């Protein structure tokens, strides 16, 4: 068994700039599952589509291209795309049909430029007004509303042919610290989590969400030492409390909450051993290579480790086979369609250069066609 390619297959990487350099290409050749793109990677819609085609052609296999496209302040796709408000606007509207249309629009515009996986919806409940990182990215302060709208957005996004990922499990909404900068801690026990934090994730699971992203947050009543991403006790809740059998994705292991406390390779091994199937390592090629190297060594160390890595890789492969589209030509008519602009206006955003009287409703397109013999 080639443990190196097996280790690479559970990692998603990123790279700086508009063009993948030698390090990024070497990691693709080594077998990584996919690439995440950020604002610094992205130009015009035509340039984005060309970049995604270059990456997929280089991989020559079902290859996941992912993005954080939520709306509001977390929207990597901006110029030339339909401007959308944060998810709080959907919470205020409190209309599942509208949230499903929002998800379908996200899918249509992500798919138009080659993305397969959108790290949305945010399933965190905005229970703490002092939270520096969630806020209006959440649908609101009601677990029931967050669940209802999160599930609707999942249906729309995946109905449009793009995998959804609910985040940040088991809940980042009550923190007063940002895990990009430090390690937040919460005292919540399982009773509190079951009442507030878990219901939106359960609703997304019920809607068939493809993936769930973990939070770099310590829930001290469950595990006083390890953040959720590295904690078997916390991640076990995905199957025991939620019945989730999809892909569990770590938040970026280079965030300070993890990187300041654990060597990157050790963090990767702990995360997979705890229950993460796919690891985000978004920025530094030396850390990306170190993660693959350490996962390979871990798999070589015991049959138990090799079996766990194999099971993670199989789940990731199923995700890739179902959702990763082949490289395709760019059609600008798929962006800023009249129905999309009408939806933006309904949610309080007036797209620049558009007359609100121009938009007319027409049916949304169906899901994408299958690739590699599997329905996406």
Mind telling me which CATH architecture this is? Alpha-Beta Barrel
DSSP, total strands: 12
Number of DSSP helical runs: 13
Shape: globular
For the report, how would you describe the main beta sheet? 8 strands, parallel
| Derived structural class | alpha/beta
- Strand order of the biggest β-sheet: 11-9-7-6-3-2-1-12
Instruction: Give the CATH level 1 class.
Output: Alpha Beta
- Give the % helix: 40-55%
How many structurally independent domains?
1
Order of helices and strands: HEHEHEEEHHEHEEHEEHEHHEHHH
Describe the structure.
With 376 residues, the protein is α/β, with parallel strands linked by helices. The protein has a single domain (3-358), classed as Glycoside hydrolase, family 3, N-terminal domain (TIM Barrel), CATH 3.20.20. The chain is built from 13 helices and twelve strands. The protein has helices at residues 3-8, 22-30, 45-59, 87-93, 96-112, 143-159, 190-206, 232-240, 256-259, 264-274, 285-301, 303-323, 338-346, and strands at residues 11-13, 34-36, 64-67, 69-71, 74-75, 117-118, 163-169, 185-186, 211-214, 218-219, 247-249, 279-281. The strands form three sheets. The chain has an eight-stranded parallel beta sheet. Helix 3 links the parallel strand 2 (34-36) and strand 3 (64-67). Helix 6 packs parallel to helix 7 (190-206), helix 10 (264-274) crosses helix 11 and helix 11 (285-301) crosses helix 12 (303-323). The longest helix is centred in the C-terminal third of the chain and has 21 residues, at 303-323. It is globular and about 55 Å long.
């Amino acid at each position: 068994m080639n443990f190196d390619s097996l280790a690479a297959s559970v990692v998603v990487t990123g790279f700086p700039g508009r063009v993948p350099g030698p390090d990024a290409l070497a990691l693709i050749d080594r077998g990584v599952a996919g690439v995440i793109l950020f604002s610094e990677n992205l130009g015009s819609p035509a340039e984005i589509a060309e970049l995604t085609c270059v990456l997929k052609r280089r991989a020559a296999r079902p290859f996941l291209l992912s993005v954080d496209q939520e709306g509001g302040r977390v929207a990597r796709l901006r110029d030339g795309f339909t401007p959308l408000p944060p998810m709080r606007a959907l919470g205020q509207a409190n209309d599942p049909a509208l949230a499903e249309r929002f998800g379908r629009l996200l899918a249509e515009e992500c798919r138009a430029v080659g993305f397969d996986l959108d790290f949305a919806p945010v399933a965190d409940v905005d229970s703490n007004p002092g939270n520096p990182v969630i806020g209006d990215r959440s649908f609101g302060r009601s677990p029931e509303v967050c669940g209802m709208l999160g599930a609707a957005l999942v249906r729309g996004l995946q109905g449009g042919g793009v995998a959804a990922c609910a985040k940040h499990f088991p809940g980042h909404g009550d923190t007063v610290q940002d895990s990009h900068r430090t390690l937040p801690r919460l005292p919540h026990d399982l009773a509190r989590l079951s009442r507030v934090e878990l219901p939106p994730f359960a609703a997304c699971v019920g809607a068939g969400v493809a993936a769930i992203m973990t939070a770099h947050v310590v829930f001290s009543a469950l595990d006083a030492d390890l953040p959720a991403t590295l904690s078997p006790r916390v991640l076990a809740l995905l199957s025991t409390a939620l019945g989730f059998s999809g892909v569990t994705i770590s938040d970026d292991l280079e965030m300070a909450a993890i990187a300041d406390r654990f060597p990157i390779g050790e963090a990767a091994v702990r995360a997979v051993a705890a229950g993460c199937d796919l690891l985000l390592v978004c920025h530094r090629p030396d850390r990306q290579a170190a993660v693959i190297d350490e996962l390979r060594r871990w798999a070589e160390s015991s049959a138990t480790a090799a079996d766990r890595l194999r099971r993670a890789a199989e789940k990731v492969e199923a995700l890739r086979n179902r959702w990763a589209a082949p490289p395709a030509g760019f059609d600008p008519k798929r962006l800023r369609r009249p129905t999309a602009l009408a939806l933006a206006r309904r949610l309080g955003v007036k797209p620049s250069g558009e007359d609100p009287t121009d938009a007319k409703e027409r049916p949304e397109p169906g899901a994408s066609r299958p690739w590699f013999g599997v329905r996406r």
